[in-house]
Design the sequence.
């Protein structure tokens, strides 16, 4: 905000009397013109550019104003507020907001980067729509820059009156509210079924509530604008349901984020960190966002950069009116994009053609794979690129759906077993889905069937592991917690699913209403199906249309451009039809379709070439979008003959291309650098994982651009727990003391306070409480260790030693000295199991390396090496001391391998390339 205040000199605190220059502010409203007293002083946080000579020529100032010189002083918002509060002086304010359109020919993120290079960005926040935008802009930005996604900005910028309700619990509280209200006018039923059935039948309710809240729509206005006689009754019922829902939420100490949409309140502690906010916007702004931006512009300079194609914007008139500012445009160069449109026999044929064209573009024209992208109208259409990628070309951003993994195969098998259980007995054919994974089961089933048996008891299953997996599901009714615990047994080797199940357990533990086990399992599977698992990643991006926003690729491939895929069919709106939306000036479904088309136009118009494909068959029609771009757009199109291959390249007899990670020769210069390098357990583990990663990271010193850690994630929690234990140790609080546990909790709570948004993040609070619940175990185990007679403890202890002629360094989390010797301890914020060494290549080698370094420094090996798991595992063996001599030999061979003549080789397993920042240096070589 521009603060322009008038008061006498004695009203100014001494610490802000910093004279900048003389001048004046043009076009000051007459009602706020100063009087002619020489003692009047003007304070503003901007310095005018006009000099004293200009003042005499200005017609905007009265004679009285010219009779004295106006003094300009730079102050902070807090200083001005202090002056106004203490002296009650008049303060004139004006919003600072400007709007711009990014030229069609410009790469949006690169355009933004070049803009920021010209400015001082020390106190500037850049807000972008997607995580992909954030990562790309971070890679562009080689200087310190605070980049956030819009969701992160919203979470931090708003001040909420209470702890935010986790979004996963909205359905549960809506169900609680619905049980006390007659919903027959809305749901055509008087009886509220079970929670699961209610959620399935009420899918339109929550989107409706969100929209009227985010758009600030008064339900009475809905009743006024509607032409249907029973609509008023429906709105009355929905209003009562929302009021009851909010009451239920508040009673449990929560607050729904949607409640603040009508009047967002900014968090001053966050906003005050910045002088300017720059937003990159591609879609429509809702009323809540407009209100938030307008309020933000009263506290800081706000710049909006719109990325859209064409001369008009759906909301242009509205934004101009609400922000009192025009969208500034640069002269757009007229460009003509090129697109080739090819019908194909099938989806597989489309994928086959795209694969051929990508390889041809790369190897014939030397175009990097990273400059190509496959943009899908719906990310769910990525299955072919997930399953058929023999050349490791595709980087499927959505990953492999958990629904397509062996975990879901097992769960579907269990679901079938539950569905066929009769009088507590299991239908034999349903067990056949598990026959391949469990020896003797297939023979057992054949034997029983030959006897004429169709059902068996659970205890008759010959595999104890399968019985352990299936038995918890055989109850007729269960609770959510019981089913989640049972699914966790099935998903024991799937860490991502386990993590999601832990979250579901925290959130749904309050829903103890018994329900049919089959329904509950289906509901949990539906939650899990939204997850995806990482895929082996190449360099050609496979992204959904929404993820393509603000991105730019030179060569595009746009498959599945059929009428059934794009524009996507939208669900029927039960509570606000198109006529009502127009009356309320809300975007209609037609507007949303136009926006989606604009996303396609943005990325096509900025590409050098685009290949558009669709399936041509009796049951499939091309998308209307194809007809549109061939007739009215600036895209030059060329129709090709239908692509109907006799055989597919995707299933070749012999491959011409394959992924090749390449190699780097170990020159004398490189070996010389290696001899000066200080190794660590982490760097050696990286060498074992991928020698090329080790080379790029440690020898070449190429550090990947990483995002600032802003979320409350596992890495952050692990650091907090490390600091908690270190602080506790330094405070000299002993485990034997009765208040040791209370001290531990207090130190942890102090550390966690730095995450101010945890006050409103309910899921974060659940996670925090789950961690605190492990503290009694930690305290009891620490007391048990103290009884052994610990003489001395050291935390975060740096150590250095020479092993096999190589320098090593590291930092030991903790080591305990007792009368019997010393123990090395490493803290882990993850589930840990006792190390059972089968192969040194497959274990964490941190502890045994520390042991050898300690031996080199103190002449003695530790008596034990332990991990401490903060997820309830406590102290477990991290490495068996009796295997240390075998490990010593293994380490010597590993060091010798590093210094041996030859090359640094790439990883043998493609999954190592998952998030490798150096993929572009080594992937995809022609052989």
Sequence:
């Amino acid at each position: 905000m521009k603060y322009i205040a008038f008061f006498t000199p004695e009203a100014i605190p001494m610490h802000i009397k910093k004279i900048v220059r003389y001048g004046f502010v043009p076009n000051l409203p007459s009602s706020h013109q100063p009087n002619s007293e020489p003692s009047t002083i003007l304070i503003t946080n901007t310095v005018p550019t006009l000099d004293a000579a200009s003042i005499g020529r200005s017609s905007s100032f009265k004679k009285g104003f010219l009779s004295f010189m106006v003094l300009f002083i730079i102050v902070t918002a807090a200083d001005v507020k202090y002056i106004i509060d203490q002296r009650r002086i008049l303060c004139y304010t004006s919003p600072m907001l400007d709007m711009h359109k990014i030229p069609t020919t410009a790469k949006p993120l690169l355009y933004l980067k070049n803009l920021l290079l010209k400015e001082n960005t020390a106190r500037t926040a850049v807000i972008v729509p997607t995580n992909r935008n954030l990562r790309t802009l971070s890679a562009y930005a080689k200087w310190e820059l605070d980049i956030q996604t819009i969701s992160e900005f919203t979470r931090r910028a708003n001040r909420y009156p209470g702890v935010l309700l986790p979004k996963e619990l909205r359905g549960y509280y809506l169900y609680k509210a619905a049980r006390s209200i007659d919903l027959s006018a809305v749901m055509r039923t008087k009886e509220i079924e079970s929670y699961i059935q209610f959620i399935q039948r009420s899918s339109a309710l929550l989107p409706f509530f969100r929209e009227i809240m985010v758009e600030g729509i008064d339900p009475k206005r809905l009743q006024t604008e509607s032409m249907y006689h029973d609509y008023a009754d429906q709105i009355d019922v929905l209003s009562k349901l929302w009021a009851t829902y909010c009451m239920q939420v508040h009673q449990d100490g929560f607050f729904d984020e949607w409640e603040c949409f009508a009047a967002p309140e900014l968090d001053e502690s966050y906003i005050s960190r910045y002088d300017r906010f720059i937003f990159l916007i591609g879609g429509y702004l809702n009323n809540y966002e407009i209100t938030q931006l307008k309020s933000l512009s009263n506290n800081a300079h706000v710049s909006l950069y719109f990325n859209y194609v064409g001369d008009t914007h759906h909301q242009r008139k509205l934004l101009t009116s609400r922000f009192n500012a025009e969208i500034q445009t640069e002269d757009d160069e007229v460009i003509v994009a090129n697109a080739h449109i090819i019908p194909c026999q099938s989806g597989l044929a489309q994928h086959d053609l795209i694969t051929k064209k990508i390889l041809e573009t790369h190897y014939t024209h030397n175009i990097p794979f990273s400059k190509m992208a496959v943009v899908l109208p719906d990310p769910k259409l990525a299955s072919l690129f997930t399953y058929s990628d023999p050349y490791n070309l595709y980087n499927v951003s959505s990953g492999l759906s958990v629904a397509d993994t062996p975990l879901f195969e097992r769960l579907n098998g269990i679901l079938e077993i539950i569905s066929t259980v009769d009088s507590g007995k299991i239908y034999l054919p349903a067990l056949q889905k598990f026959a391949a994974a469990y020896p003797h089961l297939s023979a057992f089933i054949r034997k029983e069937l030959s006897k004429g048996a169709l059902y068996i008891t659970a205890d008759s299953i010959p595999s104890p592991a399968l019985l352990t997996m299936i038995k918890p599901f055989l109850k007729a009714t269960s609770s959510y917690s019981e089913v989640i615990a049972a699914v966790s047994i099935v998903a024991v080797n799937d860490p991502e699913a386990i993590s999601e199940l832990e979250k579901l357990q925290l959130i749904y533990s309050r829903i103890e209403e018994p329900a049919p086990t089959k329904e509950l399992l289906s509901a949990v599977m539906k939650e899990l199906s939204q997850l995806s698992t990482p895929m082996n990643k190449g360099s050609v991006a496979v992204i959904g249309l929404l993820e393509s926003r603000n991105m730019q690729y030179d060569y595009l491939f746009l498959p599945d451009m059929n009428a059934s895929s794009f524009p996507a069919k939208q669900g029927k709106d039960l509570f606000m039809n198109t006529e009502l939306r127009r009356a309320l000036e809300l975007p209609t479904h037609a507007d949303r379709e136009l926006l989606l088309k604009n996303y396609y136009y943005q990325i096509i118009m900025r590409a050098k070439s685009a290949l558009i494909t669709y399936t041509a068959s009796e049951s499939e029609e091309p998308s209307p979008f194809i007809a549109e771009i061939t007739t009215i757009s600036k895209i030059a199109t060329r129709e090709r003959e239908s692509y109907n291959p006799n055989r597919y390249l995707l299933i070749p007899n012999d491959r011409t291309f394959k992924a090749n990670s390449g190699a780097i020769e170990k020159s004398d210069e490189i070996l010389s650098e290696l001899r000066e390098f200080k190794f660590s357990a982490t760097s050696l583990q990286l060498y074992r994982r991928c020698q090329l990663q080790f080379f790029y990271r440690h020898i070449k010193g190429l550090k990947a651009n990483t995002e600032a850690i802003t979320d409350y994630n596992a890495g952050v929690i692990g650091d907090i727990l490390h600091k908690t234990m270190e602080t506790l140790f330094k405070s000299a609080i002993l485990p034997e003391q009765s208040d040791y546990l209370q001290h531990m909790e207090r130190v942890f709570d102090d550390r966690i306070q730095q995450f101010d948004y945890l006050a409103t993040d309910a899921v974060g609070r659940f996670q925090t409480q789950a961690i605190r619940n492990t503290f009694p175990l930690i305290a009891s185990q620490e007391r048990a260790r103290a009884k052994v007679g610990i003489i001395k403890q050291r935390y975060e202890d740096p150590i250095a030693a020479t092993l096999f002629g190589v320098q090593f360094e590291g930092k030991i989390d903790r080591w305990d000295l007792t009368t019997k010797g010393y123990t090395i301890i490493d803290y882990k914020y993850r589930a840990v199991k006792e190390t059972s060494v089968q192969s040194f290549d497959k274990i964490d080698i941190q502890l045994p390396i520390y042991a050898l370094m300690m031996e080199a420094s103190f002449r003695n090996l530790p008596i034990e090496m332990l991990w401490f798991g903060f997820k309830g595992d406590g102290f477990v063996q991290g490495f068996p001391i009796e295997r240390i001599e075998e490990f010593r030999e293994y380490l010597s061979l590993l060091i010798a391998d590093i210094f041996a003549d030859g090359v640094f080789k790439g990883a043998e397993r493609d999954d190592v390339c998952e998030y490798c920042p150096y993929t572009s240096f080594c992937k995809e070589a022609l052989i």
Notes: The two ends are 62 Å apart (CA to CA). The first strand starts at residue 2 and ends at 7. The chain has a mean pLDDT of 77. The CA atoms of residues 419 and 518 lie 7 Å apart.
